[in-house]
Design a protein that fits this description.
single chain, about 300 residues, mainly alpha, Serine Threonine Protein Phosphatase 5, Tetratricopeptide repeat, 3 domains, 14 helices
């Protein structure tokens, strides 16, 4: 019995030593970061013109304090991005660029983060109305970080910039480039997250140009080829179906397109949980089609 108590005591001591050596810095960073992020979110809801400089500095300093205290924590690299965002909001573009560039020099292996840092840098030039320099950086992100989500977004972002600013000629050229780019990506990375995201962005390009049919067809491909929860959970799938229905009926006045998409889904995935919902959807669309046909036949 005495030996068992001694053994039990040694186990407890070992367990205590083991637990005491576990790195708790990530938890501490998360707790500190949650508090500062809340302050930052409140700051973003205010007009920067009416925010005192010391309020920006206070939040930036709090982020910097976390970095200094926990330089090796997993979340630390992204805190540099937040510091840059604070200065971007303040319109202190020089200091914002300094913070973003630290990420690229310190964490070159983190491609997604480096791509985001370069986009932040480009944003500083864009807000200085230096589109030429901003465009150079956006294109660099696309070229150097093509497999990141940030890099993949660049062709659409560039095209949307021209559209927002009323440059229709450049906008059309940029959308042509983006559409070709996303088609190429989907061809090079079939049945992968890259294809899924390229199709999402391709559909957005089509809808931005009011190419309704092409956009709906791409959404149909997403639905039929990526039905798993990994890509389309129930909320996303529901939103996708509503969008297909709305565009098909209101913009194209075509009930057969969504019916065809849903019938293809049922044929390809007969055991999928959405199958019964789509059968009912096909029935409802068929009834609407018949009702609409009768209404159109009535004399004016």
């Amino acid at each position: 019995m005495k030996k068992l108590l001694v053994l039990f005591g040694l186990i407890l001591i070992g367990l205590y030593i083991f637990l005491s050596e576990i790195d708790t810095s990530d938890y501490k960073v998360e707790r500190s970061l949650w508090r500062v992020n809340n302050q930052y979110r409140k700051l973003t809801k205010k007009d920067p013109k009416f925010v005192p400089d010391n309020e920006f500095e206070r939040i930036a300093n709090q982020y910097d304090e976390i970095v200094q205290n926990y330089p090796k924590a997993k979340l630390t690299p992204r805190i540099y991005l937040q510091i840059g965002n604070v200065y971007l909001l303040k319109k202190d573009f020089t200091r914002a660029r300094e913070s973003y560039l630290k990420i690229i020099s310190k964490y070159p292996e983190n491609q997604e983060l480096c791509a985001e840092a370069l986009v932040g840098t480009a944003q500083t030039y864009e807000r200085e109305n230096n589109w030429t320099e901003a465009l150079n950086i956006y294109e660099k992100v696309q070229d150097e970080y093509p497999l990141t989500m940030t890099g993949l977004n660049m062709p659409l972002y560039i095209a949307s910039y021209y559209q927002r600013n009323g440059d229709l000629t450049q906008g059309e050229k940029a959308f042509d480039t983006a559409i070709s780019y996303y088609k190429d990506v989907s061809n090079r990375y079939p049945s992968s997250p890259m294809e899924f995201n390229a199709w999402r962005l391709l559909a957005t390009c089509y809808f931005s140009r009011k190419n309704w049919r092409e956009g709906v067809e791409v959404l149909g491909k997403i639905l039929n080829n990526y039905p798993s929860q990994e890509y389309l959970n129930s909320a996303r799938a529901s939103l996708l179906i509503k969008f297909i229905n709305t565009v098909s009926v209101t913009q194209l006045q075509n009930y057969d397109i969504p019916i065809g998409i849903y019938q293809e889904f049922i044929n390809k995935h007969p055991q999928h949980p959405m199958t019964n919902i789509l059968r009912q959807m096909i029935k409802s669309l068929g009834e609407l089609k018949s009702k609409n046909a009768v209404t159109n036949q009535k004399p004016g």
